[in-house]
């Protein structure tokens, strides 16, 4: 596909991803308190329902990935818009905790087929090994999801209330997200990314004899080393845990470290731009390096920032926010590029879904578990996140930089 078509795909999918993240993952931060107040439940219960949605997305993710391997991402992402809209309507009309949990379970189904993992799998299905830059491109755009989503949700909630805010997001999925995802390139039956001519000929003869469609070539993942898969799953789980823990508890951590409230808010506001800066660095300086190098450099940044804040105190608050944000921005890209570089494009969607199951579970547990650490340790909880970050660095160093497995579509 020509560069103009790729740019259009990046802009289309990046915009759709911004909507998906803003209306799901970033929604509870703004609406949890008014939801809890009107429903007569605790805010913790609202976040518990959100966590259940994340657990649902973890276990459904591999099936969504398998569907993208077989059919391409266009139908799966379009379906996620319908599911997101239904879940948001469910939130708007829930009257108690059971309706709330049911709606977030529906949202979990949408997240399984509508967030980054599905988007990355869609791009790999379209572009094969040549997907690194387009993956970076959509994360550059969708990196502003909280920047757009939080102010918009807050303004809508103040103007219309939280229920109508959910309905507005549902309408945006139907009127904006659905048309965007339906406009993505349609995967033709003969599309099989990165297949060599001899392998394509052999596969064509095989599928002609069996009567099966050729686009199933990428539906079954090639065998991968168990050690590498376990290490990569550990990397994703720990990075998601740290990222979610910081998103939930950063202001509390900074104030416990002696940082004033206004400076804590300012430091927190730096994380989004730092993430984008890290992704620009990946897109520019590091684009020709192996993704393992980018990931290793990025993984060091959170422990370094945490150590600076612990040893230097409030004066290092801005430095911590910038280092954590930049590292998190690059590691988000690594979730898409590392499986591709290490294992190849064949069966990428299903494999990506399986690799991310521990990460989604860690993400669901992070606010609660790290909240306990903050409650008992205060600022010293940063030693916990720094230690987890060091484990990420170790796991990335243990991952061998080997070529992807060979095969017809590898």
From TrEMBL:
Primary location recorded for the protein, binned into one broad class: membrane
Write one Gene Ontology MF term: transmembrane transporter activity
Q: Spell out the Gene3D superfamilies in the cross-references.
A: MFS general substrate transporter like domains (1.20.1250.20)
Keywords of this protein's UniProt record, alphabetized?
Answer: Cell membrane, Membrane, Transmembrane, Transmembrane helix, Transport
Protein name (database record): MFS transporter
- Mark the transmembrane ranges: 46-64, 76-98, 104-127, 134-152, 229-248, 254-276, 297-323, 369-400
Q: Does the keyword Membrane apply?
A: yes
Recorded hits in Pfam families, A to Z, give:
MFS_1 (PF07690)
GO cellular component assignments: plasma membrane
Query: Carries keyword Transmembrane helix?
Result: yes
Q: What membrane topology does the annotation report for this chain?
A: Multi-pass membrane protein
């Amino acid at each position: 596909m020509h560069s103009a078509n790729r740019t259009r795909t990046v802009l289309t999918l990046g915009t759709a991803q911004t909507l998906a993240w803003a209306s799901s993952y970033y929604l509870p931060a703004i609406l949890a308190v008014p939801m809890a107040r009107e429903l007569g439940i605790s805010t913790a219960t609202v976040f518990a329902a959100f966590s259940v949605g994340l657990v649902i997305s973890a276990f459904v993710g591999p099936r969504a990935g398998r569907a993208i391997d077989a059919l391409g991402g266009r139908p799966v992402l379009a379906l996620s818009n319908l599911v997101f809209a239904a879940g948001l309507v469910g939130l708007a009309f829930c009257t108690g905790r059971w309706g709330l949990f049911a709606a977030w379970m529906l949202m979990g189904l949408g997240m399984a087929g509508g967030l980054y993992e599905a988007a990355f799998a869609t791009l790999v299905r379209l572009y094969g090994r040549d997907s690194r830059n387009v993956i970076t491109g959509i994360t550059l755009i969708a990196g502003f999801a909280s920047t757009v989503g939080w102010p918009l949700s807050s303004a809508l909630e103040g103007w219309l209330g939280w229920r109508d805010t959910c309905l507005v997001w549902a309408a945006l999925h139907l009127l904006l997200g659905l048309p965007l995802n339906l406009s993505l390139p349609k995967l033709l039956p003969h599309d099989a990314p990165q297949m060599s001519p001899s392998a394509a000929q052999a596969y064509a003869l095989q599928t002609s004899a069996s009567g099966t469609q050729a686009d199933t070539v990428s539906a079954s993942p090639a065998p991968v080393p168990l050690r590498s898969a376990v290490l990569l799953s550990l990397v994703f789980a720990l990075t998601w845990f740290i990222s979610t823990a910081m998103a939930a508890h950063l202001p509390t951590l900074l104030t416990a470290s002696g940082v004033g409230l206004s400076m804590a808010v300012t430091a927190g506001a730096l994380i989004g731009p730092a993430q984008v800066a890290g992704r620009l660095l990946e897109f520019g300086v590091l684009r020709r390096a192996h993704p393992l190098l980018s990931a290793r450099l990025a993984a060091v940044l959170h422990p370094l920032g945490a150590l600076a804040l612990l040893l230097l105190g409030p004066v290092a608050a801005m430095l911590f926010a910038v280092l954590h944000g930049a590292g998190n921005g690059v590691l988000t890209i690594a979730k898409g590029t590392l499986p591709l570089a290490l294992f190849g494009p064949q069966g990428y969607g299903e494999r990506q879904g399986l690799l991310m199951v521990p990460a989604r579970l860690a993400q669901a547990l992070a606010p609660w578990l790290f909240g306990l650490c903050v409650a008992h340790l205060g600022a010293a909880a940063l030693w916990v996140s720094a230690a987890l970050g060091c484990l990420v660095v170790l796991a990335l160093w243990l991952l061998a930089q080997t070529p992807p497995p060979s095969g017809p579509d590898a």
